[in-house]
Amino acid sequence: MAGHAAGAAWDEELVHVLRRRRYEGVIHDFVMLDPLRETQAAGAAVEQGVGVLRRALDTS
């Protein structure tokens, strides 16, 4: 069960960090919509999420 707890902690951290940042001028779920995938805001959000996961998993 420790693995599940660790996964839940990473998920909580990711959600907390991504909710803390606002991307002005975009709609909810903009990262998941194909027409908006190539926008600067979507790229920044994905990059931010990857950074959180790397820190949580302690990888480079």
TrEMBL record:
Tell me which species this is from: Streptomyces himalayensis subsp. himalayensis
Name recorded for this polypeptide? Uncharacterized protein
**Domain of life, source organism:** Bacteria
| Lineage start | Bacteria, Bacillati, Actinomycetota, Actinomycetes, Kitasatosporales
